[in-house]
Amino acid sequence: MLRLAPLRRAAPAPLNRAAAYLRQSSTASPAADTKPYYVTTPIFYVNAAPHIGHLHSMVYADLFKKWHAWADPARPTFLTTGTDEHGMKVQHAANAAGVPTRPFVDAAAAKFQALASHAEIAADRFIRTTDADHLRASQALWQKLQENGYIYKGEHSGWYCVSDETFYPETQVERDPESGQMLAKETGKVVEWTSEENYFFALSKIQPALLRFLHENEKFILPKSRYTQVVREVTEGLEDLSISRPKSRCNWGIPVPGDNSQVMYVWLDALTNYLTSAGFPDTPIEQTFWPANVHVIGKDIIRFHGIYWPAFLLAAQLPPPQQLVVHCHWTMLGSKMSKSLGNVVDPIEILDRYGIDSVKFFLANDSYLNHDSDYENERIVERHNNFLLNKYGNLVTRLCGPKFDLPRAVKSIDRMVDLPETPLAREVDGLVKTVAANMENALTAPALSAVQEVVANANNFLATHEPWKLRQDPVAQDAIFRVAAEAARVASLVLVPFIPGIANRVLDRLAVAPEMRGIEHARYGADLTYGVGANRKGDHPVQPLLLEDGTKSRGWTREEVPAAKEN
User: Fold this and answer.
1) Regarding beta strands 125-128 and 77-84, do their DSSP bridges make them parallel or antiparallel, or are they unpaired?
2) For the segment 121-136, what is each residue's pLDDT rounded down to a tens digit?
3) Is residue 203 a part of any domain in this protein?
4) Are 293 and 38 in contact (CB under 8 A)?
């Protein structure tokens, strides 16, 4: 038997002090650790309705913003999402729908904006590539590339994919043995041989500088396998890139500066959105909050972000983004979701049916950087009921049972009591460090796993020591409850960026004051004020979640869903 002494620590280091947003009166260049933490989603192509993959990218980027806002509240954060509205594919989709292109993209953009709002994505800007400042930014970047000698005009013939809006080199296409059509290896989309006069970006010329940048920034792309993929492709050699289209073939795009017969390549236009949202070109680049800290992207657009985008920026003498986080896709029964297969999931319907936090928890907990994940509605329900309800919620309702005295237990922090040795207190004290290390590497599933382990250990700790049997020994009872309560409180604080609605309801149920919910309080014993009035019946912070047929999963019906436990 060992004494469980209170954990001692030095006072937390002061948080960084950030400058106000740069669009205000400041004229100083932002330091790397004081500029707003800038995170982006990809901008979404408007030729089809939003699906669960779009929501996943939004949730992932939003989580990075909210984690950093919680971890360093003195430093501003800035998140952009938006829509990619130019190009031949959009023009074709509008024609197929029998709608003029501008009303078509307006209606499509509104759907993505509604999704971001519905999912409570904390976007500071919803950018559209038809915005006036984006036109200026795209043409300004073009002019920089031209002035620096990286743009020339020439005849171009090659394999063009309308669906991907890109030319592919011979090494990136193959013939389908069944249909006989030529396909892009990376996306499987049909390519056609096309000849036209275009402007070119001298990608081969910037290749040495791009390769040097990649070698000097090994964490530029996460996961490492994607970084290795990009380095290998750049090392093998890069062909110059066609960056315009004749207006006669595609009239829906940003005009090439000085040549009204051509429109800009949609990817050069689209990628520039990240600069536009940072204030380029209206604000000198050194006074904006560029470079972006994180671009969140899907694995299917890694070439554009991992090769073309840093190449454009280096050629324009602008800093590349600090990091790309490349996530995989969601599948349905092992197949990629697609409209033609009829297995596309409507994200707004899912959010309405299962709740914002439960869907976000599932997307962050079940997605990975190295492999695709299979989507099922039942898995959302299972994650919610198995952890959020039965483990996390029930831990809190146990602690808040009417026969116990939580505030008394909390204040017993300095009392020395004989208890069997337990690592739980130290696990609680180190939870933020563990989660932060995973978030640094964009590993949301392991980050949440660490929280779930602490909650599971707290439940086991209570089950092992049975404090409800120690009503005649309040000192021993308090000592046990104190450890479990700290596990519940700190776990809830760490969960705020992930599932803010549920986590804050749990903190309310524990009677944790709003001003005691920051990272500086997410340590064992950092708050001795909570629990006042928490010991009462009912008021469960997490409710059961049911499938659309009224069952809970595993065959439980509505009537059989277990109620939250109280002791």
Assistant:
1) parallel
2) 999 999 999 999 999 9
3) yes
4) yes
Calpha distance 462→468 (Å, rounded)? 9
Q: From CA 27, how far away is CA 286, in angstroms rounded?
A: 9
What amino acid is encoded at 209 in this protein? A
Which H or E run contains 374?
Answer: strand 373-374
Same domain, 318 and 357: no
pLDDT of residue 31: 54
Q: Which domain holds residue 152?
A: 9-327
pLDDT for res 21: 32
Q: Which long-range contacts (CB under 8 A, 24 or more apart) does 340-349 make?
A: 344/49, 344/51, 344/52, 345/51, 345/52, 345/375, 346/49, 346/51, 347/50, 347/51, 347/52, 347/54, 347/55, 347/115, 347/119, 348/50, 348/114, 348/115, 348/118
Same domain as 171, residue 116: yes
Cα(408)–Cα(283) distance, rounded to whole angstroms?
56
CA distance 248 to 244: 12
Helix (H/G/I), strand (E/B), else coil: 189:
coil
Together in a domain, 109 and 187: yes
Question: How many other C-beta atoms are found inside a 10 Å radius of the C-beta of residue 300?
Answer: 16
Q: Please check whether residue 36 lies inside any domain of the structure.
A: yes
Examine the pLDDT at 7 and tell me if it is beyond 60. no
- Same-domain check for residues 371 and 323: no
Query: Tell me, what CATH number does 533's domain have?
Result: 1.10.730.10
Q: Which of 144, 127, 86, 145 is nearest to 292 (CA)?
A: 127
Residue 256, helix vs strand vs coil: strand
Least confident range from 24-28, 210-214, 270-274, 348-352: namely 24-28
Residue 70: give its domain's CATH number: 3.40.50.620
pLDDT at 357 over 70: yes
- CA–CA separation, 482 and 525 (whole Å): 9
Using alpha carbons, select from 275, 315, 297, 337 the residue that is nearest to residue 136: 275
- Give Cα 464 distance to the centre of its chain: 38
**Peptide bond before residue 281 is cis, with ω within 30 degrees of 0:** yes
Q: CA–CA separation, 9 vs 4, rounded Å?
A: 15
Backbone angles phi, psi at 217, to 5 degrees: -135, 75
- Residue among 46, 62, 71, 181 at smallest CA distance from 118: 62
Domain count, the chain: 2
Helices (H), 279-430: 302-303, 309-315, 347-354, 356-365, 377-383, 394-399, 406-410, 424-429
Considering the domain architecture, whether residues 274 and 379 belong to the same structural domain is answered as: no
Could you tell me if 514 and 500 are in contact, meaning their C-beta atoms sit under 8 angstroms apart? Answer: no
Q: Are residues 258 and 358 in the same domain?
A: no
Task: Read off the pTM.
Answer: 0.86
If asked whether residues 323 and 371 sit together in one domain, one would say no
Sheet architecture: strand order including 259-264 = 244-246, 259-264, 255-256
- Asked whether the predicted pLDDT for residue 17 surpasses 50, the reply is no
